[in-house]
Amino acid sequence: MAMSNVLGQKRIAKLLTGMIEHQRVSHAYIFAGPKGVGKDKMALEFAKALNCISTQADACDSCHNCRRIEHHNHQDVIWIEPDGKSIKIEQIRQLQKSFQYKLVDSKYKVLIIKQAEFMTLQAANSLLKFLEEPISPLVAILLVESQHQLISTIRSRCQIITFPYLDQQSIVQEMKQKGYREVEILLASNLTVDIEEVKNILDSDEFAQMKNIMVQWNEEIYSEDYRALLTVNDKIVKNDYIKQHLSQFLDLLILWYRDILNVKLNRNAFLVYRDYENILIKQGMQLTEERLIDQIEKIFFAKKQIAANVNLQLALEHLVLSIWEG
């Protein structure tokens, strides 16, 4: 895969390609952006492009350098990631030793640090000295979610490239090509912009079960059926997967009410739960726009309570009762 094929990041691929073509490669970069937008993949493809034997500004994927870098077994491309909860000074010292050796069959030594914001202060200062006095032709790439989590002295010595969120249409097209149903992709991509997480959701039987429980629970809440309170205890609180993904579970409910609002506004083309359109229409006939907005706000309030460690069962039971009270 070339840089230009990294999903949703053609602008950045063009920028990096131009740097190689015009021999303006910086010695250090910060790739900043949310999880799942292609930072790791772009760093890998950039390392390949810098050292590709067959092409001048991108990766060919067929020369021995590209193949070895792709499989993380090239001696001149080193990856570092947190050891436990942090990147420690010993890890930086070790890479400094490895970079003392001369280039073998590469143009650049490439250092890629994943989750660089988790460097200890000692590790960051050691890396700073290394960046200021590189032993050999070096390109360092620091991958972070936010550049401001790095110390200012490192930021000032790096070229910062900000990765935007992936647009939903790119995710939908990519996953459709892999054989997933569009209606399921739409739901997953409304929950996360991380394409790997989207795939995990689509492949998860537990997520599908969680969605079905949400649909059942919503119907019980809508009907003011006392079983909605029993479902909290029997099918939500006791379900380990839902407890671990509770924010996502409540987001599913928010998306449901948003869909009802779209039905009432004649915006059916924007529905996420397209398989349930008839139910959405039926519920929309009984709920005003003001009531729907109020219910969404109550779900957000429940999420805040749970995040603040309020008892899970009490918070969800209170949510049900507050929706019934209007």
From TrEMBL:
UniProt KW keywords: DNA replication, DNA-directed DNA polymerase, Nucleotidyltransferase, Transferase
The keyword Ion transport is assigned to this record: no
Regions crossing the membrane: none
Any GO BP: DNA-templated DNA replication
GO cellular component: DNA polymerase III complex
Gene Ontology molecular function terms on file: 3'-5' exonuclease activity; DNA binding; DNA-directed DNA polymerase activity
Pfam families: DNA_pol3_delta2 (PF13177), DNApol3-delta_C (PF09115)
SUPFAM superfamilies assigned to the protein according to its UniProt record, in alphabetical order: P-loop containing nucleoside triphosphate hydrolases
DNA polymerase III delta subunit C-terminal domain: residues covered: 243-323
Key word Translocase present: no
Principal EC category: transferase
Catalytic activity: DNA(n) + a 2'-deoxyribonucleoside 5'-triphosphate = DNA(n+1) + diphosphate
InterPro entries associated with the record: DNA_pol_HolB (IPR004622), DNA_pol_III_delta_C (IPR015199), DNA_Rep/Repair_Clamp_Loader (IPR050238), P-loop_NTPase (IPR027417)
The EC number(s) this enzyme carries: 2.7.7.7
NCBIfam families: holB
Protein name stated in the entry: DNA polymerase III subunit delta'
